[in-house]
């Protein structure tokens, strides 16, 4: 299942993502991975969640992020949840690119039997209609 955490910059998406990741990490019987651009979450996440800096692996663009996420799923048979902070900073700010990425990630969640939560710096009104059903309630 894919979930979008949406809101303008500074609206608290990252705080919600951290709270959810820490909560899931406490209760999960498997692995929890958080991907971010940079290293700002280092001291906020539980040690039970694996934090990955996308910049350290030169992850940039929709295909690179999708391939990286797929590789994490392939290498962690027990992955229950993956969180991606700053999705648009990694894949680009184009709405068509976001649609493409979310659709590919949705297929990956079904294949890998995992949950993927994406933070997206955009208001609900700016999210393409095709993705509205993925927005967190």
Q: Which consecutive residue ranges, at least 5 long each, have pLDDT under 50?
A: none
Calculate Rg over CA atoms. Answer: 14 Å
How would you characterize the largest beta sheet?
5 strands, parallel
Helical residues, percent = 25-40%
Q: What integer is the average pLDDT?
A: 94
In oligomeric terms, what are we looking at?
single chain
> If strands are numbered along the chain, what order do they take across the biggest sheet?
1-5-4-2-3
What overall form do the CA principal axes indicate?
A: globular
Number of strands: 5
Distance between the termini: 14 Å
Count of domains? 1
Order of helices and strands: EHEEHEHHE
Which structural category fits the helices and strands? alpha/beta
Number of helices: 4
What layout of secondary structure does this protein have?
Layout: E1 2-7, H1 13-27, E2 31-36, E3 49-53, H2 62-75, E4 79-84, H3 87-91, H4 95-112, E5 115-121
Parallel strand pairs: 1-5, 2-3, 2-4, 4-5
């Amino acid at each position: 299942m894919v979930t979008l955490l949406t809101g303008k910059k500074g609206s608290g998406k990252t705080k919600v993502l951290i709270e959810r990741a820490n909560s899931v990490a406490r209760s999960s019987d498997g692995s929890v991975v958080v991907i971010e651009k940079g290293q700002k979450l280092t001291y906020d996440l539980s040690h039970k969640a694996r934090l990955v800096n996308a910049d350290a692996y030169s992850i940039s663009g929709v295909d690179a992020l999708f391939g990286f996420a797929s590789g994490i799923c392939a290498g962690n048979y027990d992955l229950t949840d993956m969180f991606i902070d700053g999705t648009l900073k990694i894949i680009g700010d184009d709405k068509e690119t976001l649609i493409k990425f979310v659709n590919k990630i949705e297929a990956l969640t079904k294949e890998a039997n995992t949950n993927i939560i994406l933070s997206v710096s955009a208001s609900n009104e700016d999210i393409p209609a095709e993705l509205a059903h993925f927005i967190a309630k």
